[in-house]
Amino acid sequence: MGSGAFTLALVLALSTCVTPVERKLSGLWRNEQDSLMEISALADDGGFQGEYLTRVTLAGGCTRISPLRGAQQQPSEVAWPTFAFTVWWDTFSNATTAFAGQCFVDASGREMLSTTWMLREAVGSLEEDWKATRVGRNVFTRKRTPKGKILHSLSPSCEDAALPVL
Amino acid sequence: MGSGAFTLALVLALSTCVTPVERKLSGLWRNEQDSLMEISALADDGGFQGEYLTRVTLAGGCTRISPLRGAQQQPSEVAWPTFAFTVWWDTFSNATTAFAGQCFVDASGREMLSTTWMLREAVGSLEEDWKATRVGRNVFTRKRTPKGKILHSLSPSCEDAALPVL
Amino acid sequence: MGSGAFTLALVLALSTCVTPVERKLSGLWRNEQDSLMEISALADDGGFQGEYLTRVTLAGGCTRISPLRGAQQQPSEVAWPTFAFTVWWDTFSNATTAFAGQCFVDASGREMLSTTWMLREAVGSLEEDWKATRVGRNVFTRKRTPKGKILHSLSPSCEDAALPVL
Amino acid sequence: MGSGAFTLALVLALSTCVTPVERKLSGLWRNEQDSLMEISALADDGGFQGEYLTRVTLAGGCTRISPLRGAQQQPSEVAWPTFAFTVWWDTFSNATTAFAGQCFVDASGREMLSTTWMLREAVGSLEEDWKATRVGRNVFTRKRTPKGKILHSLSPSCEDAALPVL
Fold it and tell me: Which interval of the chain is the signal sequence (chains A, B, C, D) (predicted)?
């Protein structure tokens, strides 16, 4: 590939999840475990909100759409912005999760959110604090969908309580 | 200490960082490295905002007060709520940090926020992604202060750019 | 797939990296970054040694084959044994790495070592200890090769010093 | 403290857990949870063996002395050597643990091993792999004892099986 083509590819890449103006962290994303998240448009300070629908749980069982909240580092000079967000599993879990990651565009132009997460479980006492934190990785890719808040149409209908999730 | 005294201590403990009604995650906290954070009153859904003033940086240099945003798991049945929040280092860093932890009250009635954090640095390409995430621990204790947003009075006045921080 | 076929597949799987008798953690493995490792036959207590040739470094530069040492949990009742090992980067780095993981066989019969690692850098003082530990993930798959200690034939010939690696 | 006194303190510090000649990682260490480990004399290549007696377990229950194996980075130019080791919980657990850390001497001359660990549990399938790894921190300080392999005298006598531990 000549340098001209490379420049073009780079420009295309920058027009996707990177450009400050468009702030394309927003949208619908899916990870390797088929969990979904939908991120809102970014506020001027980089803040965003969204929803997370996990497909995996610590204890099995039914999950619900969970709120997420975070911020993208303002990408003044960095081509690939970093971000972090937290998900709280509301009524069906006593755990909390935090993700931190960076947005990339791979050679084929595909947007990726490369993230590391911590899953913090509630423990009953300070003596059990040592075992409360799990760590892992997730890569999200953009999921193309029809317009609209589609996450809600994907939510399971069950009402069972479930335990911590990702 | 008799069981009556113990009950009293427990009640006092529960009246501090634990009680759902009072949501005392709010306030000023200091960690082992003398970094400070101030957390706002919690919203009805557990969400909170705040400010973080770090004392340590990856590259040395001057720091600034940075915004934080997160949520506390609603402590329906759990005595010690978990929480998570993100800090973004705004104009002086290309990194982002996420904390996840749990609030405890130790035997002497001292409130503690036992947290694990990830510090995500921006890297220039997907090939460098493997090395972008640091992990560590911080324990915060409540810092008693005069009323008011004291974090601002503690902010350094320098204007130098600095690198990622905790 | 009928249950007979499933049983057969399971038996095939168990005959690869799982069987206690054969202890097939030994052999040559490659991860996503094209780093290679060669693990010796396991000792009776699960201990093993080997060599690691990284393709990525914290500071760039030339790498050398590095010794590794670890142990596999004795898989008495667990079909998929866990293991952990450490790599030390000898003369070309002041860092140390530890991996912990588990051996799996995926649906297509491919052996995988799913690992999480920590990379510990040396820091100059206790005050810098907070930033010394990176965390990440690596998946290794078996690399088929001609007989012999092939890692040595793949070693770079340069003599330059380099910095920490994975 | 004058610079002369500081130099003296530094020399004293270097004569403890740091000096390459004496290789003082060996000995008996205790962490915040009262777990104990005993590290052998270091081999010429930095390798060491030892034993670990944990006081905490994932599932409660009785523990046994467990073997550990690791290596210290050869501290050619680094005053404070890094190290890593693995512990395997032999017959009473299906988990494996890896530690990575660095040896420090604090201002009062007290030797410390500042470590981060991963605890890898065995899971039943690749689908559960995401939740298998916990992360945490431990600080070990030297425990002064009478001569001899004292860890064995501290071992619990129970014969019950127990689950993963640190």
Answer: 1-23
